[in-house]
Model the fold of this input.
Amino acid sequence: MKEKTLIIGAGIAGLSISIRLEEQNIPYLIIDKGENYSSKIAAGIINPVVFRRMALSWRITELLPEVLDFYQKLELEFEDSFLHKIPIRRGFAHEQEKNLWLKKETEADYFDLIKPLDEADLSYSKLNNLCGTGEVKTAFWIPTLKLLEKIQSKLIREEKLIEEDFSFDKLDVENLTYKGEKFEKIIFCEGFHGIYNPYFSYLPLQATKGELLTVKSSEIPENESLNRKCFVLPIGNQLFKVGSTYKWDSPNTDLSEEAQIELCSHLENLVSSNYEIVNHEAGVRPTVLDRRPLLGEHPKHKNIFIYNGLGAKGYLITPLLSKEFVEYLCGKRELDREVDIKRYEERI
Done:
């Protein structure tokens, strides 16, 4: 019988790796302590545009087809809906932002992603704006908690996911055993807990705390997501997620009044709508200084790997990167140089 691959972590990173391993008929076991500080809290917005620079997201033309394929296959498997198409309406903060949008809408790479501005966009009345709005027409959102719980429950039933703390004291990296059981490969998908991993501590992984609110309102539009300084994502039944804050080097999920005040201020600058706060959550994203994930094999310990640092765009980038990563594990390709941890070998 072929030895299993051991995956540490059952957030979207570890679960997407497990899905790709199954596609290759590679047996695996996941160990996860049953706590999650990022993947289940994330809003799960799939946005192909970086608004602050009005640029396309990294590798977006390759990412989007994999997003559709990956989540639609999960919809078929679980007979449920996970990938919800929703336009994103961006409020322009100033004339320069509007003019940049007008320039981008004439470029071929943006034709399928953003809608050309018209008078309705410029005079949009449901959002507080001085310079009009623009619409990203190819965008989606994913009910992250539902998706992860569905996959995790299935894997627990199949005895492929064990909920327990992982102990480095019981790991033998030279013989590739954990608690005496032999594995073919070991992949660390720990999220921000990777900052405590003794084998990959040389990598510039950061714990970036983010807080978000769930509000209820009968006045905010439910047919699109609003964006300026914050996002307002309709999730049904007059409920909206509002986020998100960023606090670097903060590996805790304590709720702060400061973050709530900040999010309420952004929301009230965006819309003149009555609302009530029904929930306040915090998560910790695994982020990297150069905004690229950390993928690859340990430079000294063979068959010890990391797949981490997906950051705020994890649900957008993991369908493609998990596929490429497992192909790399199988010797079928090299990793993208921008995500390969070889870029940080001088830090060892």
